[in-house]
Amino acid sequence: MKLAIVRQKYTPFGGAERFVERALAALTAKGVDVTMVARRWQGEATSGAHALRLDPFYLGRIWRDAGFARAVRRLVAQRRFDLVQSHERIPGCDIYRAGDGVHATWLELRGRASDRYAPWHRYTLRAEAEMFRHSALRAVICNSRMVRDDIARRFGLAADKLHVIHNGVDLDSFHPRLRRERGEGLRRKVLGETQRAGAGTTAPVMLYVGSGYERKGLPSLLRALKHMQRTDAVLWVVGRDKQEALMRKLAQTLGVDQRVMFLGAQTDVRPFYAAADLFALPTHYDPLPNAVLEALACGLPVLTSDTCGAAELLSAESGRVVKAGDVAAIAAGLDELCANSARMRDAARASVSGLDPAMMAAQLVALYARLS
What is the rounded CA–CA span in Å between residue 234 and residue 278? Predict the structure, then answer.
């Protein structure tokens, strides 16, 4: 079986790319010949797959996306592949993986009136609607039930076209044993050197991982930090975003800057999961963030929002689900997790015990077999 997977920009830190990396070895072991189609790669192209670059000339964001979409549609018309699976909103592909969720829903949740007039948003909304209603679309891979239900409601797709396949997580690489092997040393180093909140190495460490600070709820998390009863709890922010200076200023204005550490993008986040006591991502909209799965696999209880697909994996024993932007609820949830994180570790790990990449790949191959 020859499968093309389309992603416009391939970056080592992207959720779609980690999905591909985790599925790739299992897919190739099952005889799937994978070609990655992209405009460009940051770092090396994924190993184990062929690489095909489509990079038509463009000026501006709309021309960039539209030109790439046209190039992909020409590739589809050549019928060089049995199936073409796009991770971009490109009408005419066989499969769409809705890893970014529904753009229309994100704009509604963000609530900015100006978005409806912005040319790029208008283009993306049109492309999204055309893609979901295109006769060539045979299947949509949804990484959460939240996304599946949203697509069905908005675009009227039949249930047999919508397939929920949760992201896989490497349960061996992300494991509670990392706390002993790699976390304790990092914890002593960071907390000992900074003496955040004067609590030394005993302070509860709350971890946030992600770019897109606004969408993933970092402003609300900083405001919640101010309202927590646990004034010794510290927040580690891992990830890079153009709003970092603004978030640092917000933390300073709130008077919590001594309890927040911005640690930048990390090629290996595992030591930070291992050093933390809990994970916090009160995102305004996220279909199924890999960072939550990785945190749970490492035994960290999670606080997230009801507009995050990962909420469907949590129970009262493994985390807390709050309304995005509800600062009081976020603060109360963080206090609860700080108090109970140790006893919740086993349940956190168990919540993702069935999401290994081999199982995800088996579901994908079964889908491809039905479609080919």
Answer: 11
- Alpha carbon distances (Å) from 340 to 144, 204, 293, 317, 334: 27, 11, 19, 9, 10
The answer to whether residues 226 and 220 touch, using CB atoms and an 8 Å cutoff, is no
Residue with more model confidence, 220 or 188: 220
pLDDT, residue 187, reads 87
| H-helix or E-strand spanning residue 18 | helix 15-29
Whether residue 161 is found in the same domain as residue 185? no
Q: What sign does the dihedral 18-24-25-27 (CA atoms) show?
A: positive
Residue 244's CATH number: 3.40.50.2000
How many whole angstroms separate alpha carbon 88 and alpha carbon 144?
17
Q: Is the pLDDT of residue 159 over 60?
A: yes
Q: How much is the mean pLDDT over the chain?
A: 91
Do residues 155 and 45 share a domain? yes
The answer to whether residues 23 and 363 touch, using CB atoms and an 8 Å cutoff, is no
Number of helices (H) and strands (E), helices first, in the chain? 13, 15
pLDDT digits (tens, 9 = 90+) for 61-71: 999 999 999 99
126 SS3 class: helix
On whether the pTM is more than 0.85, the answer is: yes
Nearest alpha-carbon partner for 32 in 6, 7, 3, 58: 3
Structural domain count, the chain? 2
Give pLDDT, residue 332: 98
CA angle 183, 189, 195 (to 5 degrees): 120
- The CA distance from 187 to 193, in Å, is 10
